[in-house]
Amino acid sequence: MRLAHAAPDPQELLRTSDAIRNPVNSFSLTSTLTEYRGGKRVDSSTLAIYSKPDKASGLYGTLIRFLAPARDQGKLMLKNGNELWFYDPANRAGIRISPEQRLLGQAANGDVATVNLARDYKAQLVGEEDTADGERKQRRCHKLLLDAAAPDVTYRRIEMWLDVADARPVKARFFADGDRLLKTAYYRRFQQELGAERPTEIVIIDGIDTGWVTVMRYSDYAWRDVPDAWMQRDYLPRFRPE
């Protein structure tokens, strides 16, 4: 007699995937965003990212420092909980911004901050299916539907494919209100970083114009003791990188 296997807990699958994307302790890295139109590079941005998990809430605070291009150098963005703030040292003004607003190409402000999806979304397991990964190889995946559990998250709904072998993120589709597809993302180039095999490249494709592509690359991973003060909006005018 063949025994039926219990379906995995979708929220636990999502937590496992979060742990693959996000180091468990405070860390820093460099993120390089490159925008392509019709295969031609049209823009790029380089960011220093400092992330610190809040042990009580499970959410990450993230400070983002703009390194390049020169016109943006020194600007800051802070994600504290699900609030997002932008600071421009040229006019010493700090303003609250939307996580959905585009930062560069298909990358939204909320995409460059460290996000704990298992805290922000309720997961539902659709089933298993084969899907092409970012290298166009077929992968057997758990397909999850993620519905926003809070009003201030970046996306209303996400479809996510996780490898059945280890819950690695393979692919995700992001939707706005009204089920409008905003973009599709592929997680690629897994490398050993800070104790786990993590995706070091995300390819983001526009939901309508598939020739509009943004590539986010991560490098320079390091454990970092991020000061609590860096996660405070009032500290932004006094911030100096160590």
TrEMBL record:
Record-annotated Uncharacterized protein TP-0789 domain positions: 62-238
InterPro entries per the UniProt record, alphabetical: LolA/LolB/LppX, TP_0789-like, UCP028205
Alphabetical keyword list: Lipoprotein, Signal
Transmembrane intervals: none
Signal peptide: none
Protein name as catalogued: Outer membrane lipoprotein-sorting protein
KW Acyltransferase (keyword) present: no
Keyword Chloroplast belongs to the record: no
Source organism of the structure: Aquincola agrisoli
